[in-house]
Automatic annotation (TrEMBL):
Lineage: Archaea, Methanobacteriati, Methanobacteriota, Stenosarchaea group, Halobacteria
Leader sequence segment: none
Top class in the EC scheme: hydrolase
One biological process term in Gene Ontology: small molecule metabolic process
GO MF annotation terms: hydrolase activity; metal ion binding
EC identifiers of the protein: 3.1.3.-
Gene3D superfamilies the record matches: HAD superfamily/HAD-like, Haloacid dehalogenase hydrolase-like domain
InterPro entries: HAD-like_hydrolase (IPR051400), HAD-like_sf (IPR036412), HAD-SF_hydro_IA (IPR006439), HAD_sf (IPR023214)
Cofactor (UniProt): Mg(2+)
One Pfam family named in its UniProt record: Hydrolase
Family affiliation: Belongs to the HAD-like hydrolase superfamily.
Name of the protein in its database record: HAD family hydrolase
Length: 228
């Protein structure tokens, strides 16, 4: 079992969950824009291609709403207003700890350095960090959304390791995404712990090979201290 000098975490879906439900945000976008609602939240999630562009979040949503409008035969919908309404409806303070997150942070602090690498930009993610009371919880915070390259590129991980003066080989990254967290960490030479939000089976990993698979963040402590 490897010994780690640093444990780094993803934020959204890993340490925290969002308390607003999908319907509130989706239909709130229409209400704020003053447009009669059509479709369902799932239509928008399916229409949003890839990860959000931190440099153009509105454009990302406009494209999604355009696809939904096209699906339902609406040709002259103000999708820019819907995108703005969506962004104004989202409450970034409406977050809560995922089960086991506090215990995982405490277990990581016993090991050594604790860090955070999130693909979101600082102006948005810092609100969530503050709402969770985690302003002083990390030795390094990397807002990859403000960098030229985000996860799964190695750059955000390299930036965190350099700031901590630790080696990739003795660092562990914990996240909920195979594509962004597991692949990204391993691209940079770190070990990866995958903790999906929903129960998953080994045969659902599509060729990814995280060093650890957790059903709960409570399992991190045992992975870090296997002899305890």
């Amino acid at each position: 079992m490897a010994s780690y000098d640093a444990v780094l975490f993803d934020l959204d879906g890993t340490l925290c969950t969002h308390d607003q439900d999908e319907e509130t945000i989706y239909f709130g976008a229409f209400e704020t824009a003053g447009i009669e609602a059509f479709g369902e939240p799932g239509d928008l999630w399916s229409a949003l291609a890839g990860a959000p562009d931190p440099n153009d979040p509105k454009g990302y949503l406009v494209n999604g709403f355009e696809r939904v409008a096209d699906k339902y035969g609406f040709e002259s919908v103000d999708t820019a207003a819907l995108a703005t309404g969506f962004m104004e409806t989202v409450d970034h303070t409406a977050v809560s700890f995922r089960s086991g997150a506090v215990a995982a942070l405490e277990a990581a602090a016993v090991v050594g350095h604790v860090g955070l690498i999130t693909n979101g930009p600082e102006h948005r993610q810092s609100i969530k960090i503050g709402a969770l009371g985690l302003e002083d919880a990390f030795d390094v915070v990397v807002f990859a959304g403000d960098m030229p390259r985000r996860k799964p590129h190695a750059d955000p991980f390299d930036h965190a390791l350099d700031a901590l003066s630790v080696r990739a080989e003795t660092s562990l990254y914990v996240g909920n995404s195979l594509e962004f967290d597991v692949e990204g960490a391993q691209n940079a030479g770190l070990s990866a712990a995958w903790c999906p939000e929903e129960p998953a089976h080994i045969d659902s990993m599509d060729g990814y090979a995280p060093e650890f698979v957790f059903e709960s963040l409570h399992e991190l402590a045992a992975a870090l201290h296997p002899s305890d």
